[in-house]
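*** Protein under study ***
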Amino acid sequence: MGDIDVEVLKGIHLSIEKGEFVAIMGTSGSGKTTLLNIIGCLDVPTSGRYILADREVSNLTDDQLSEIRNEHIGFVFQNFYLLPYVTVLENVLLPTLYVGGRKDNAEKNAWDLIKLVGLEGRAKFKPNQLSGGEQQRVAIARALINEPGLLLADEPTGQLDSKTATEIMSLLKKMNEQGKTVVLITHESFIASYAQRIIQIKDGIIFE
């Protein structure tokens, strides 16, 4: 048996402007995660074009895509993906290992971000010593350490209670107000309401 191609996205035409806060909504299997993965250069489209920061990225090599991600994009995921055996500070610094730059500047930037997300008293803690909301704050600081212009958040409040979810969304909104482009995936209308624009996707098609 050969591989079978499954068409997930169908004729998507989408423009996101610099500085926007966009929410992508859809049920499980609607194609929203595939769309976010293409926006984040984790996947490439099998046809069509994708232009990021005035650069056509659809046909780049894996190494070139990795370079684009490190330079332009920060990721925040539902499951946090923190390294359990290192501190908050070391988790935030992790992306700097893959880019150039002086380590002392990176550490200063990491401390600034840890303060920005309200965790200056937790910098030496390990992830298992933090609440879910605190772990997500660490993940946001880590996503910002390389100063990306684009912040992608895939169900960032999915594991959090409503109060903590509100705190995380207020933090993402603050990042947007400071100039970051934010693209968020959610299935919750309340979470999507923080965005300036809501894109509804169903069966791989944008319908609203």
Notes: The chain has seven helices and eight strands. The two ends are 38 Å apart (CA to CA). The first strand starts at residue 21 and ends at 25. The mean pLDDT is 89.
